[in-house]
């Protein structure tokens, strides 16, 4: 019995010792020159400080109020309050409050508050609040709030809020707003604004030079109008808002006329086989191989579509045309065989025209 009692006592003492090692002591303050040269010495890893001052670099168990580091602060536990470092803050735990550094902030746990740094914020856990970096914000889990950086925002999971950078990527769902040169989200509910927007699916609007949605709207359209014999358009985006890339060919004064332009459109379903496209396209007109002149035709099309098959539709409808040209041929401004105009205006070195026209052709959706 005595032997069993002694064995049980020893086991309890060992468990109590292990628990004591896991529990971090809370200290009012500490000062470290460079770990372990400080008031807490080598035990600083196991001590959480309300106030922590590291002249060069310190390793502590955590922070409850304030920490200042000349070069860097490293904590092997949670940080609460305000943390400021000349180069880097590294937290092996959660962070709540404001974390500011000259180069990088790295957190393995969750973040609740603001992170501000000159180069990069890197988080492995959830982030709630504002992440602001000169180069990049990288999040390995859910992000709620603002991600603002000079080069890239990267999230491995869902984002709710805003991403503002040159490149924004969300490998989960994006609920909110992305603004950048290149935006990507697996699924977006909200708004993308950029030069290139990419998403697997979207419940909202993407506005840019190129907006690609995997399950979106794609179509090729061949048409004829009153001033261009042939037009070929490629349409890409969603039915709510799609990009239009247009090429055209015509003749004027026995010479070739080419056009190329960009536009936006929306497709409004009317019935199972019937829909209405509302589009605006601006084209540059090149006459006799002159591509540098101001020679612009803007068309506002209201086009009815009748679906013959699942993919093929007949199209037709009126258009409002606004034309400005500083190209003069045989004493007259313009390089198009225009119908009767209802408005024209002479500028200093150009002429403005407006007329009603038409657009008729075939649309192939795929």
Folded structure, characterized:
There is one protein chain. The chain is mainly beta and 366 residues long. The protein folds into 2 domains: 119 residues, no CATH class; 149 residues, Porin. It contains 1 helix and 29 strands. Strands 3-4-6-8-10-12-14-16-17-15-13-11-9-7-5 form a 15-stranded parallel β-barrel. An 8-stranded antiparallel barrel has the order 19-20-21-22-23-24-25-29. Strands 26-27 form a two-stranded antiparallel ribbon. The longest helix is centred in the N-terminal third of the chain and has 21 residues. The chain is elongated, with a radius of gyration of 32 Å. About 5% of the residues have low confidence.
Structure summarized in a few sentences:
By secondary structure, the chain is mainly β. The protein has one helix at residues 2-22, and strands at 25-34, 37-38, 47-60, 62-69, 72-75, 79-85, 88-91, 95-101, 104-107, 111-117, 120-123, 127-133, 136-139, 143-149, 152-155, 159-164, 167-207, 210-213, 217-225, 230-237, 242-252, 255-269, 274-287, 295-307, 312-325, 328-329, 332-333, 343-346, 351-365.
């Amino acid at each position: 019995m005595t032997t069993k009692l002694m064995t049980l006592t020893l086991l309890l003492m060992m468990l109590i010792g292990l628990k004591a090692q896991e529990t971090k002591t809370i200290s009012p303050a500490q000062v470290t020159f460079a770990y372990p040269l400080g008031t807490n010495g080598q035990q600083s890893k196991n001590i959480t400080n309300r106030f922590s001052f590291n002249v060069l670099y310190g390793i502590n168990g955590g922070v409850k109020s304030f920490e200042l580091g000349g070069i860097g602060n490293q904590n092997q536990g949670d940080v609460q309050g305000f943390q400021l470092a000349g180069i880097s803050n590294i937290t092996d735990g959660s962070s709540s409050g404001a974390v500011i550094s000259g180069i990088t902030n790295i957190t393995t746990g969750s973040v609740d508050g603001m992170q501000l740094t000159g180069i990069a914020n890197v988080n492995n856990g959830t982030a709630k609040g504002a992440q602001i970096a000169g180069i990049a914000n990288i999040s390995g889990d859910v992000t709620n709030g603002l991600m603002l950086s000079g080069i890239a925002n990267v999230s491995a999971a869902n984002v709710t809020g805003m991403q503002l950078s040159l490149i924004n990527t969300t490998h989960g769902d994006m609920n909110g707003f992305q603004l950048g040169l290149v935006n990507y989200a697996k699924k977006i509910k909200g708004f993308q604004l950029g030069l290139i927007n990419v998403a697997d699916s979207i419940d909202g609007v993407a506005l840019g030079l190129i907006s690609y949605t995997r399950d979106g709207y794609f179509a090729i359209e061949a048409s004829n109008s009153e001033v261009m014999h042939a037009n070929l358009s490629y349409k890409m985006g969603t039915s709510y808002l799609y990009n239009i890339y247009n090429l055209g060919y015509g003749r004027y004064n026995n010479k070739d006329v080419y056009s190329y332009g960009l536009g936006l459109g929306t497709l409004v379903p009317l019935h199972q086989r019937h829909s209405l496209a509302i589009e605006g396209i601006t084209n540059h007109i090149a006459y006799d191989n002159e591509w540098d002149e101001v020679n612009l035709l803007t068309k506002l099309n209201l086009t009815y579509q009748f679906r013959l098959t699942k993919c093929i539709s007949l199209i037709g409808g009126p258009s409002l045309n606004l034309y400005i040209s500083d190209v003069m041929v045989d004493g007259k401004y313009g390089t198009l065989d225009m119908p009767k105009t209802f408005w024209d205006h002479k500028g200093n070195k150009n002429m403005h025209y407006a007329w009603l026209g038409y657009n008729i052709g075939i649309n192939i959706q795929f």
